[in-house]
Predict the structure.
Amino acid sequence: MSTLEIPSELSHNQRLLDYVRPAEWQNPTPNGRYNFVVIGGGSAGLIAASGAAAIGARVALIEKNFLGGDCLNVGCVPSKALLRAAKVVGEIDRGRHLGIAVDGLSADFDAVMDQVRKARAEIAPHDSAQRYQKLGVDVYFGDAHFTGENMLQIDGQTVEFKRALIATGSRPASLPIIGLAEAGYLTNETLWNVKNQPEQLAIIGAGPVGVEMAQAFQRLGTQVTLFDFEPRILPREDATASALLADALLRDGVVLKLGSEIGRVSAENHGKRIEYEQDGEAHSMIVDEILVAAGRAPNVEGLKLENAGVNFDDDGIVVDDHLRTSNPAIYAAGDVAMTHKYTHVAGHAGAIVVQNALFPAIKRKASSLIVPRVVYTDPEIAHVGLDSLAAAERGIAIDMYTQSFSGVDRAVTDSETEGMITVHVKRGSDKIVGATVVSRDAGELMSHITMAMKYNIGLSKIMMVVFPYPTQAEVLQKVAGQYNRTRLTPTLKRILDWWMAVTR
C-alpha cells in the first residue's frame, strides 16, 4: 500500500499539514464502545463521520495518512487548480479568433505550482482534524486493523464498535512494464511534489487523468506524449465526444501514441527511454519524466479483514446494494468498494451508509444514485446515465437527439461552437435515460440533466422552461424542441390543418 508524502518544505504545504495531519496531534483514549467507527478520512469517510455525529452518534474517525483523502491532497483539488491555469493559457490563445493576439505567451511553472498548493491549503480547513473534533468526532491518526468482528486496534489501542465503515480508498495501480519501476515514474500521488518542469513528459493511460494532465502540461510548456493501448482516448466515452477532445489535444500540440504497447523502460543519462510498438513497428523515445495514469488498486492491505469476516477480491471489498459487507456490522464505501470511483459518489455513499447502519429500518440503495461524470479538459466531456451501447445491453430501446453548439447563439458569440449534446430518451417517451455533453462548461450543464433524471423531468417539460438568452444552457431547450417536433405526427398535422381551416 502506498503512503502519501507531502513535503513540508514546499510552499503552502506546512499550512496544509497543520490541518490534515497536525504534527502535535494526540489521539484520544478509547472509552467504551462507539456507535460508529470510520476507517479512512476521504470523501466517504468524512461525510459519514460528520453525518453520524450530527445525529448524536458516538463516532471515531481513523486516518492513516492525511485527512481529505486523494481528492484534497493529490486528486480533484490540485488537478483542477492546475487545469485552471492551463485553461487561461487556452483562453488567451483562443483570443486570436476574437481579434486579440498576445505575443510571447509563456507560463511560469513554479508560480503555477505555487498557486496549486495554495488552493489546496486554503480548502484544507474543510477537511481538518480540528473541524471534525469540534463536530464531536474522535479523530485518530495511525494504522488500524481488525482484531474481531466488532473490534479493531490502532497503534496498540483497542477500539470497539457497534457499526463500522471502511472507506480507505484506492491508489495508483502498478503496471507490469519491464524496467518501469527501476527507472522511476510519477503518479497522481507524487506529481504535485515535482520541483522542476519536465521538458518532455510521457503519460501512460488516456483515461480522464491522463488526458487532463496531458492538456494541462502541454499548455504550460511541456511537450507531452500520450500513450494508450486503446485505439482512441477515453474509450468509455461516446466516440464522437472522444474524437472532439482528441482534435483539441492535437491542436494544443499533444502527441498521441494510441494503439501502442510499451515493452520496456530504462534510465538513460538524465532521462528515461521508452521502447514501444505501434502499428507493428518498434520505436523508442527519451523523456524527462513518465506519469502513469492507468488503473487503480483498492487499499485493503494491512486491515486484516479476515479477522472481521469481511470478504474482498482484487476489485476491493465486496458489498451489497446497501453497501454492507459480509460482516453485517461493517459497511464499505468509496473507491475501496464501488465501481464509480468519484469523489461525489463517495460522499453520497457515505451518507447512505450512515442511514443504513444507524437506521436499518429505512434502507437506501447505492443503485438509486444517478451518477454523472466529467472529464475536466477544455472542452469538458460530461456523461450521465445510459449511452446507446449500455441501453442495448439492457434491452432498452431509445431515441437519440443531438444538437451541435454551432446552432447555439451564445456559443457562436463565444467562438465555442465545436461542442455537442446528445440526449437519450426511452423510445416513445420523453423520459431521459442518459446524456453526453461536450462543451467548455459541460459539467455545469450536466447538472441540469442529472436533476431532470433524478426527478423524472422529461424533455417536454424542459421545453416549457424559460432559459435566459443568450446562454449556452439554451442547448437543452433546443434538444427538447427536437423531441417536441416528433410529436407532430402526420395524423395530428392533418387535424391541426383542418382546425386552422375551419377557424379562419
The domain at 13-172+297-368 is CATH 3.50.50.60 (FAD/NAD(P)-binding domain). Residues 324 and 331 are 4 Å apart (CA to CA). DSSP finds 16 helices and 23 strands in the chain. The longest strand covers residues 157-166.
